[in-house]
Amino acid sequence: MRDYLEYLRIPGVKPLLFASTFGRFAYSMVSLAIFFQVEDVTQSVGTAGLAVGISAGLGALTAGPRGHLVDRFGQTRPLLAFVPAYAISCLLLATLGQGAVMAVLLSGLIGLTAPPLNISIRPLWLDIVGQQRVRMAYSVDTAYANLIMLLGPVVSTLVALHFSPRLAIAAVGFFMLVGGILLAVNPHSRAWVPEDKDHGEHGLLRSPAMRLLALEGAAMGLAAGFVTIGIPAAATLSGQQELTGPVMAAMGVGVIIGTIWAGAKAKDIAPANGLRASTFLFAIALLPLPFVPVGPWMMLVVMVAWAFLGPANVFYLETIDVVRPRGTAVAALGTLWMIEGSAAAVGNAVGGNVAVWIGPQATLALGCFFVIFSPLIFTVGIRGVLKPASSAAPRESWAPVPE
Fold first, then answer.
1. Rounded CA gap, 349 and 97, in Å?
2. C-beta of residue 376 within 8 angstroms of C-beta of residue 258
3. pLDDT tens-digit series, residues 263-307
4. Does the global pTM surpass 0.85?
5. With 0-12 CB in 10 A as exposed, 13-18 as middle and 19+ as buried, what is 132?
6. What are phi and psi of 98, to 5 degrees?
7. Measured on CA atoms in the order 351, 355, 357, 358, is the torsion positive or negative?
């Protein structure tokens, strides 16, 4: 705990965490806000799942290009373009999305205008804390983001069910507007300079390591898509919509536990090795999900599984830093999220209809199946293209920076 308190005293850390709060809160609310708004308008779980899938899919498909824009023009101009467009799109869905077709189209517009918020925050940590504390930075940032993820689904569910789904989706736009402006005026964001590319360096997806990470992202994305639509579908079809938020929030609790451990106790674990081990444990812990009822048991399974996924998120960022081509600090993560998010959107769209026609347990089972591929792919990579990230991390490379 002392290490974390010392870390938070580094100049620039707390202002950046604060700047990230509101936009991340918007992202943590948006899927359920869209789900409840479209389900309220259309009275169809399948259409609501399709709307969430299309929104997430378009957001994912444009993540890579948005990352390239940031790597080329810096962070300020892309943020100032996308943030107001996203807020307006949310307002349009809340006011004009009355028919099924219009609701789905406007949900897609929300995904299309998603600001490059998280992928812009990540490279700032290296500038603020330096290489020696970057694992701690990724750990704190991931834990904080997932603390927000814990609250967002609960707030989204409460507002949508007890006030109005329109109010929930309008709140998403408001929070993104505030958060996007705060990040755009943050001095570290404004001063961030894109890396120079090395002459003759491979393009992103010409890099064998990036192609392997893209393959893993597709598998994990499908798994996430099936699980994140399977849970609200199971709650809705069982007449327990109010439990959707708490079950989804259990993911955030688990990730926070796991990332705190990774930042404090995983100092000697090489990134790729930690990534393989944590995704394997995640896959094992997720297996009971289709067989437990919505409620406390499902919350427990989700919390335990995501406790193993928390360290994976930290090791994943470090692995990317080791194997990506230079000059792609933002685009590398954006491209991988594009692939993973597109796969998740397919899982959302297909999973909603699988839940209606077969059952939500089948949707959750598909998620458990696809997640198994993640540790298998990392095992192959460690023997080849991910080997640079599998070397044992010397303890001194993660030692505290002298005061």
1. 19
2. no
3. 666 667 788 888 899 999 999 999 999 999 888 899 999 999 999
4. no
5. middle
6. -95, -30
7. positive
